[in-house]
Amino acid sequence: MDKNNTNKMIETLKEYTEFIRPYNDAINLVRIRLEALDADYGHLHRHNPIHQIMQRVKSLDSIVNKLAGRGYEVDLENAREYLTDIAGVRVITYYQQDVYEVVRALKSCLDVVRERDYIKKPKKSGYRSYHMIVVVPIHYLKGIEYYPVEVQIRTLTMDCWANIEHQLHYKTLKNDFSGTVSKKFQEYAEELNSISLKMESIYSEQNRQA
Length: 210
Prior knowledge:
Blueprint: H1 3-45, E1 50-57, H2 60-69, H3 76-82, E2 87-93, H4 96-109, E3 111-117, E4 130-140, E5 143-155, H5 156-173, H6 179-209
Parallel strand pairs: 2-5
Antiparallel strand pairs: 1-2, 3-4, 4-5
Helix pairs in contact: 5-6
């Protein structure tokens, strides 16, 4: 690699690092609020609804590919303008009712600009999850700026299904994921959801008796 290309790459990485910093700050603020919610709920109800919190920011390659795929000129300004999922948080709960407790709590402290309930209305593939885009105020010396964070909230069983489906669909079967295989996954998603709700009913019954 010649010196000009090396310098250009270094400059691009520096720009990306500076660009992504407030998204990392936004994710951390969402995480702090989720952890406070979990602790408070556990104190009041003797049950912590959140099993796990995961977070990520899109890599430079992912940003480039998504902008190009949507037909936008590839630059960081367009990324900030048009992409709402650069910052992402996934919340894994134990039960379906926990999902809606987390949703309710986030709505009480953050502005929600978009939400989609794939639990009440699953995708045709059988995918279930609750998606939200929340806007997080980031306070800097120069003032307040607002950044979107995509929050996906799902139960352990929903997350298990989604991860296996993704691995098979995109990594193993690829173009062969259709027809009979796709139908089987829809059936398995329904079966897994049914088992999850039965286990949740045991928890609810025991909770009422406590």
